[in-house]
Amino acid sequence: MIPRLLAVAALALSAPVVAATATTPELKVTTLDGKPFDLSAQRGKWVVVNYWATWCVPCIKEMPDISAFVKSRKDVRAIGLAFEDTGKKDIQAFLGKHPVAYPIAQVDVTAPPKDFDAPKGLPTTYLIAPDGRVAKQFIGPVDAAKLNAAIAKGS
Question: Which of 14, 19, 102, 137 is 20 to 30 A from residue 128's alpha carbon, by CA?
């Protein structure tokens, strides 16, 4: 009996550390244009959840790619999460120069959405599967090829 308990304890200790991001996260935010965005309402579609900031050069570079990807696929939606303490008007002015085809919401850097880890770097992107589970997390820039490959794998 004791060897079996030791084996179970050893297995538990060797299990991978699970990230704080929920397996099936919830996300309810208000976009900069005042509209509600509810991740659960997107079921049946792939959803790109992209953390970015106006000062982040790789973020700025990937935004047109994400926008084009979303426009090219009827089964994909996206939400951009501006992760910075800049004023709303500054973010809107930035988006006037760098428009995207998906909604943007600003999130509090000290209290990010509860079901997602705070980004360890920007950009950070989560690909949410049609069933609502996190299919893939990307740290660093994404493009259509990376997103298509993750969707093809069903990650």
Answer: 14
